[in-house]
Amino acid sequence: MSVGPHCICVNAQVYSSVIRIPVAHVEIVAENRVGRRIHKHIRSLAVPRFVGSAGEYEARRYIVEEFQNARYNVEERPFTASFFPLEILPRLIPAITVMVLVMGFFALPVVPLFSVEAGVLVLLLLFLSSRWHRSAERMYRFRSFGTLRSKNILASHPEDTNLLTIVFTAHYDSKSQNWSGPVRTLLFGSLACTAAFTSLLLIVCAIVPLPRQVLLPGVFLSTLLFLPCLATTSGNESPGAYDNASGVALLLELARSFAGESPAVNLHFIATGGEEAGLCGAVALVNDPSFRQVCPPARTIIVNLDGIGSKGPLRITDRFGIPPVRTG
What we know:
By secondary structure, the chain is α+β, with helices and mostly antiparallel strands. Helices cover 47% and strands 17% of the residues.
């Protein structure tokens, strides 16, 4: 086979002449073939598949079959987690915040010191709830609030401990919510900012003799914002084509393309469950001693595929929390 600037020449003994195919045509045909397979994966996966649902089970079975068809050894690792971080905690923290602000407002004329403590407590709640701590993962053990069950799906090349390890991962579950993402961000962000400002003003009012009426707008607005935050619910109505059937489709095609190769790295392809329930599948994976042994942090790169093909700009969050801190 010889390659020219505008064509590929294929010389086969069974033919009496050289076959000339334009390079662009070959690339388009190959691209369309892969694209058709990706679209097939998306159509097969894009059904409501909240963690623990029948749709999630069907998606998991499809992914396992595709990995097996690509001649991978497939491992399913089950995990369980509590609904507490998903359903209870997002309501509990705003409720405590508003309750403490109201108590501080009424206690101001009688016990100013309590109002100072209330303001500090609200600021501490906002600070801690805006960050992720390893200790927060223990909340997945609160089984009395409901238990979810799912599995992580792993497909791997043979392991060589001397090589760099690259993990491609994508979550395969989906969920719907009664409020859109921008609306939820606006609601919870407004509540956090209002509560922080009101708590600071509460401390000032307790130290400097100011009438407590200046706190009324902040207390009232915090209470008003809390009500729709309380009403946010998750469901199983979203087919999740972008989030994240497209990411899983690309994961399957990457695995297929490397199935017959011998890359100079260790490759793992992992479909995680329970991402929409507080990342519990990923948390269970990285806390698994056997996974940490195969993929030691010192020589492992993880590439997460999520929202592939969605419209609009790509926004990377490099700061989070109250006050904002940088993150990798």
